Amino acid sequence: MKAIRVKEFGGPAVLQLQDVPTPQPGPGEVLVRIHATGINPVETYIRAGTYARLPELPYTPGNDGAGVIEQVGADVSEFKPADRVYTAGSVTGTYAEFAVCKKEQVHPLPENVSFAQGAAMGTPYATAYRGLLQRAGAEPGETVLVHGASGGVGTAAVHLARARGLRVFGTAGSDEGCKLVREQGAHEVFDHRTTDHFDQVMKATAGRGVDVIVEMLANANLGKDLTILAKGGRVVIIGSRGPVEINPRDTMQRDAEVRGMILPNTPPAQMASIHAALVAGLENGTLRPVIGKEFPLAEAAQAHQAVMEPGALGKIVLVQGK
Ligand code: NAP
User: Fold this and answer.
1) SS3 state at 322
2) Is 125 exposed, middle or buried (0-12, 13-18, 19+ CB in 10 A)?
3) 37 vs 55: CA distance, rounded Å
4) What are phi and psi of 73, to 5 degrees?
5) Domain 2-120+290-319 falls in which CATH fold?
6) Model confidence over 42-76: pLDDT tens digits?
7) Distance (Å) from CA 29 to ligand 1 centroid
8) What does pTM read for this prediction?
9) Which residues approach ligand 1 with their CB closer than 6 A?
């Protein structure tokens, strides 16, 4: 089969398409024929060798994908060949024509959802759910600011927050991004390129502040985020690309909390609960993953460049024959 292999850490050019043996599923595992692969920023940090946890070289990247079950290993009764699935984790990597996954890393993909959309679920939607609902504990009737709502996690957070009955504010850094965020259901949209968007958020809450902030770029925003929280407000940090200065007093005046999260820390029972909710959301149409750009598998390097550029418009995926 064809797969992207990384033999050394470095720039996007280290992502090389090669022929490798098709992996075989062991007990409790399935082999998925991958039709679409989700590209996540973390895979660029790992490829560059700058991430805290690195795989052994050589490796095939990727946790997120969607396709059909090709083969099941011993002890797997939950799936059968030809079932449509999305993956949230993989043993052998999803930047490939086939990927072995543990059965708990695979979830049913409803007929009304494309493979490209399925590839947007594993990391972005699970992260948005974990951040918004499990870590921040957002409740219906509260106001949430999705700070960075135009990308993979942000569009997911907007859908989840609307479905849960929150008042949803979202930001983007381009006119098209702002339009997209509004189309996804945000009640109010702000441009995070402007320095006064924090004041605009305060105005939109009549000076009360927001209850929850889902933060995609904490190093740029956390200091100001703490000034636009309501009493009892929570900021959940999903993304950060460097240090930031804050004034701790801004948390004291509001009894506010800053809560970090990283998806792999999710306990297995809570992860199972997240995917049960996500599959239900796909089935009932409240979750509608937005695909921004599609690349063929051979152009994984271009996809890695694209995912780090500004002007996100949903999810970037690699697609293969359907
Ligand atoms: P993505 O699709 O590339 O989207 C990036 C988002 O960040 C876009 O909406 C972008 O908006 C926005 N952004 C850019 N500048 C910003 C600013 N100054 N303030 C607020 N937002 C800004 O990436 P993603 O998959 O959604 O991931 C978002 C971040 O979360 C990444 O840093 C990623 O590494 C991290 N992440 C963390 C976890 C975890 O477990 N903690 C899991 C998944 C992702 P424009 O392009 O419109 O400017």
Assistant:
1) coil
2) buried
3) 19
4) -85, 180
5) Quinone Oxidoreductase; Chain A, domain 1 (3.90.180)
6) 999 999 999 999 999 999 999 999 999 999 999 99
7) 31
8) 0.98
9) 40-42, 123-124, 127, 147-154, 171-174, 177, 192, 216-217, 220-221, 238-239, 261-263, 307, 310-312
| Domain boundaries defined on the chain | 2-120+290-319, 124-264
For the CA of 127, the nearest atom of ligand 1: 42
Cβ-defined contacts of 267-276 (< 8 Å, 24+) = 268/104, 270/130, 270/134, 271/88, 271/126, 272/104, 274/126, 274/129, 274/130, 274/134, 275/88, 275/107, 275/126
* The ligand 1 atom nearest the CA atom of 316: 2
The pLDDT tens digits of the residues spanning 230-243 come to 999 999 999 999 99
CATH superfamily of the 124-264 domain: NAD(P)-binding Rossmann-like Domain (3.40.50.720)
Tell me if 271 sits within 8 A of 11, measured CB to CB.
no
Tens-place pLDDT, residues 21-51 = 999 999 999 999 999 999 999 999 999 999 9
The atom of ligand 1 lying closest to the CA of 45 is 34
End-to-end CA distance of the chain: 16
For ligand 1, pick from 216, 263, 316 the residue to mutate: most ligand atoms within 8 Å of CB.
216
> What is the spatial distance between Cα 322 and Cα 313, in angstroms, rounded to a whole number?
23
**What three-state secondary structure class fits 198?**
helix
